[in-house]
Amino acid sequence: MSLRFILRRDFACVLKSSAFYFRNFHKFIGRMKHVKLSQTADLMPTLGLGTWQASPEVIESTVYKALDLGYRHIDTAFNYNNEEAIGNAIKKWIDDGKGTRKDLFITTKLPHVGNRASDVKKFLDLQLKRLQMDYVDLYLIHVPFGFHCDAETLTPVVNSNGEYDLDLDTDHVSTWKVMECCQKEGLIRNLGLSNFNEAQIEKIIDESTVKPQVLQVELHAYFQQMDLRKFCSDHDIVVTAYAPLGSPGAKDHFVNKYNYSPDAFPDLLGHPEVNEIAKSHEKTPAQILLRYLVQQSVVVIPKSTSDKRLKENASLYDFELTPYEINKLKKLDRGEDGRIFNFLFWKGVENHPEYPFKFLTLAADTK
Ligand code: NAP
User: Whole-angstrom Cα distance, residue 26 to residue 22?
Assistant: First the structure.
C-alpha cells in the first residue's frame, strides 16, 4: 500500500468523521435546549428564568428583557408575590408582536397555604388571573407540607410563639387528583412536584392516573442529588435544579430575615476548580455550573435581574465540558452537607408529618 494511498484514505476518514461530528454536534447542542415531557410530549426549555426574590417592579422589565434575549421559560410561584408583574411583561411582549403564548413555558406553584384538595382551584384561578393566562405549562405542589391560611392575607397563620400553624391533614393524593381535573379542564398542561422526597413521589405515582412530569428540587455542584435523580430518571420525571448557582442571594435573605450565620452559605461561584474550568473555556464560573447541569439533561432556572448576567446565563449551548471536567465537578458534591434549603426557617415545620427531610432533624436529635 503506497504512502499516498494511506494519506488519502486517512484524510477522507478525518473529513468524514468531522462532517459527522459537526452535523451531530449541532444536533446534540440543539437537543439539549429542550427536554421532552413524557405524557404530553411538550418541550420544556432546559434554561428558565428564576424569579424568587425579584420584586414586582424589577421583575416586570427583567422578564420582558429576558424574553427579548431568547428565554422562553419562566419560573414563578404564588409565594414570590410577582405573578402579576410577570403576567404584565408577558402580555406586553405578546401584544408587541414579539411572540405568542405557545412559544412560552410558564411554571408556577401551589403554595403551602393552599396545599389541600379544596383549595387547589381557588389558588390556580387566582394565579391564572394574576398571570393573565388561560393555562400554565407546569403547575407544581411547591412543598409537601401545608400551613393553615389566613383567609385575608393568604399567608400562613403563625402562632403566638412564632411557630407556623401546621395543617396536619395534608393529603397529597387528594390534592393531586384535583390537579388532574384542572389539567383535564385545560388549565394546566403538565403536573409536577417540588421539594418532595422519593417516598412521597412514589405514593403519588402509585395512586394517581397522571404521573408527575417534573420534580423541582435544590440541585447544584455542592448538592448533586444523584440518588433522587436516578429515581426520577427511572420514572420519566424531568428534574429541574433550583439554586443552580448555589443561590448567592439567599445568604443576605436568610441572614437578615432569619438570623442565619453567614458561614452557613457556600461560595460555589468562587470555587477554584470551577474557576479553572471557566478560564479554560473562556466562560464564567456561573456558565460552567449551569452547563454542568444542562449537559446532564437537568433543567436550570438561574435567577438574575441584571442585564449582563441574564445574557451570561443564557449562553450555555456553544461549548461542551469534557468527561474529565464533568468528573472533576462531580467530585464537588458534599451530599446532605451541601443542602441550603431545609425550610427549618419556618419554625416548627419539622413537626409536620409530611416534612420531607425528617432525617435532618433525626440526625440533629442524636448528636
Ligand atoms: P440561583 O439562581 O442559584 O442564584 C441567584 C443569585 O445569583 C442571585 O442573587 C443573582 O443575582 C446571582 N446571579 C445570577 N446569575 C449570576 C451570574 N452569572 N454570576 C454571578 N451571580 C449571579 O438561586 P435561586 O434564585 O435561589 O434559585 C433559582 C430559582 O429557583 C429561583 O429564582 C426560583 O425561581 C426557584 N426556586 C425554587 C424553590 C422551590 O422551593 N421550588 C426554592 C428556591 C428557588 P442578580 O439577580 O443580581 O444577578
Answer: 6
- With a 6 A CB cut-off, is 313 part of the ligand 1 pocket? yes
Spot the catalytic one: 64, 71, 80, 139.
Answer: 80
- Find the 313 Cα to ligand 1 centroid distance in Å: 11
Which runs of consecutive H residues, i.e. helices, occur in the chain? 3-31, 56-69, 83-95, 117-131, 172-184, 198-207, 226-234, 250-258, 272-281, 285-294, 307-314, 323-330, 358-366
CA–CA gap between residue 140 and residue 109 (Å, rounded): 5
Q: Is the pLDDT of residue 317 over 50?
A: yes
Q: Grid coordinates representing 210?
A: 397522571
Question: pLDDT, tens digit, for every residue of 142-180?
Answer: 999 999 999 999 999 999 999 999 999 999 999 999 999
Q: Does ligand 1 lie within 6 Å of residue 245's CB atom?
A: yes
pLDDT tens for residues 275-286?
Answer: 999 999 999 999
CA separation for the pair 85, 56 (Å, rounded): 5
Length of the chain: 367
Say what the pLDDT of residue 31 is.
47
Whether 38 and 234 have beta carbons less than 8 Å apart is answered as no
Whole-number Å distance, alpha carbon 304 to ligand 1 midpoint, is 6
Assess whether pLDDT exceeds 70 at residue 134. Answer: yes
Residue 107 pairs in a beta bridge with: 75, 138
Three-class DSSP labels, 343-355: CCCCCCHHHCCCC
Pocket test for ligand 1, best of 47, 52, 80, 109 (most atoms within 8 A of CB): 52
Ligand 1 center to 333 CA (angstroms): 19
User: Does residue 21 carry a catalytic annotation?
Assistant: no
